[in-house]
Design brief:
By secondary structure, the protein is mainly alpha-helical. About 50% of the residues lie in helices and about 0% in strands. The chain is globular and about 40 Å long. It starts with a helix and ends with a helix. The mean pLDDT is about 95.
Length: about 140
Amino acid sequence: TETLRIPILRAAETDSSGAVGLMLELGFPIQEPVGEDGGTLLHVAAYAGAAETVRLLLDRGAAVTARDLRWESMPLEWGCIGSGEKPDDVPAPNWPAVVLMMIDAGSPLDEVSASLDQPKPPSPEIAQLLRHHGVT
């Protein structure tokens, strides 16, 4: 699995869901930490706004409660931060779809904030979406 780590990380962060699916079929563990911050593929795809890849990973059983190794954050938090930082790895990022998919999949909401005054705030659009779901 070590030889697949960088290609699957890059595929997840660019929303190349076909490549991610193929590498999962070749044996890459879906919960394996990837990248220097130790997030899972779901963390990486959520941060990038990679909606197709997030859907694939959720359909394949990726855990919405997995925690990265650096900040101990769940994928939903990575998606919220990504919406504010706006990485440009995905041609058409869709953070609202990513956040809604993870909420629908049971992601806990108690560790995310809709506040725009925090050091790494979500985008205003995602903050509004979170408030709609009861997040303050």
